[in-house]
Hints:
The structure is a single chain. This protein is an alpha/beta fold. It has 19 helices and 18 strands. Strands 2-3-4-5-6-7-8-9 form an 8-stranded parallel barrel, surrounded by 7 helices. The longest helix has 20 residues, at 509-528. It starts with a strand and ends in a 10-residue tail after the last helix.
Amino acid sequence: MKRERLYLFxxxxxxxxxxxxxxxxxxxxxxxARLLDEFGLDYVEGGYPGANxxxxxxxxxxxxxxxxxxxFGMTKRVGVSASNDPGLAALIQAKSDAVCFVAKSWxxxxxxxxxxxxxxxxxxxxxxxxxxxxxxxxxxxxxxHFFDGFKxxxxxxxxxxxxxxxxxxxxxxxxxxxxGTQPSEISAIVEKVIAAGIPGDHLGIHAHDxxxxxxxxxxxxxxxxxxxxxxxxxxxxxxxxxxxxxTVVPTLLLKPAFADRFETGVSxxxxxxISRLSRAFDELLNRAxxxxxxxVGSSAFATKAGIHASALIKEPRTYEHVPxxxxxxxxxxxxxxxxxxxxxxxxxxRRGIDVPRDDRRLDALIALVKEREAEGYAYEGxxxxxxxxxxxxxxxxxxxxxxTSFRCMVERRFDANGHLKTVSEAIVKVLVDGExxxxxxxxxxxxxxxxxxxxxxLGKFQNEIGDLTLxxxxxxxxxxxxxxxxxxxxxxxxxxxARWSTVGVSDNIIDASFQALMDxxxxxLMKNREMAGLVAAE
Length: 538
């Protein structure tokens, strides 16, 4: 049976830019557009040329090779002809393949937001689409608030969609702009739109995630007949975000309910890189990846309970809905106080450490992990510290260097200008090949000062840690009070893209931080010598 074509439309660089705290530069946009284009998406919406200097500069050149490059903007203004509207002219002049208009399709918005008549809005939709088509570009129309508008006044919402289609829009996109429509409502309304005469192969869905159902709503729309899905990388977008294409695409390609009926521009080979794509985008945003993200999160194929791990080792399908390698992820059997022997054996084996089931060192390691977790350590979230602990028990961790002492000082004082400031200073003494080196550093707080001083001079190992970066630092108070036991988790990465986590526990936050910092550096040196196992992002 021939499969139908589904088209994937990415609006990360336009709607995703509405996310609080996200502001793309032109260089950022160029980098993201390249990632999306290479992945195999059909449309890349780049922004609103004429609305701001960044988007205007971005549209000075075509930024995609295979994907259709899309400019976004408003329909022409009421009272101005299409040929005399400067906003419409900027869209047509942009170096894009297509133009996507936002058009009101809820009569309430037409009256309140636009302040025009319903017919004037319909005329603006038609004239704008015709102008774009006359320029040789593809026209799309986002029918904003379509589902709310349909529920309030189905006749007018349909009239807006029909005006776009009759004028020659390639895609009429039905938008759940407020994100409150339910999947059953989406299905029913899409079916009515198709029954009214707009074919499904000209309909798209644009869902927001305000009820956590943007992906479900998008898939429900496909089931009902639409053939274009709009969304963003990692689900970014204003308020609660947009439909997450990083979740939608694997579902379309790997689940028989969709894969048997539809095809997309994304190949299975490209799909195997989607985890890396998701993490690369988070890296560009300078934020930690969501560990429990479907398909691509570091916990997406993680198993903690011993009974689950035992079954997983025998047959992965017992606890995996798809093979992790199909999305570029990997299986992860976690070690913790809840894990049985199977967890430990599997995790050690994955790291290239073969310990027989009856080896007494294995029993000693399990006992030690459970004892230390009772003290506050959390090895399920600190893969590198667990590996170092295991290898130290097996006497396979070299002593690259030894810290003989460290000291941290925090001084609060008035500077020469009379401004109150707090200064943190750390002194670290390190022994490398029998030679003691002392480093002093100031930092933004005692932990930062200690980190800088520790990495300031490691002798012959100094060049090896030049690309080591600490990307996340978490502190957890375990038992209350200023004298409480503190757990510190540190996430690190290097220029290869690998990420690893380390842990430290103490009733002194500086000491806990130092433990985690030390483990991070030692793991990096081990990794450089291929003496360490796989880490989370590899």
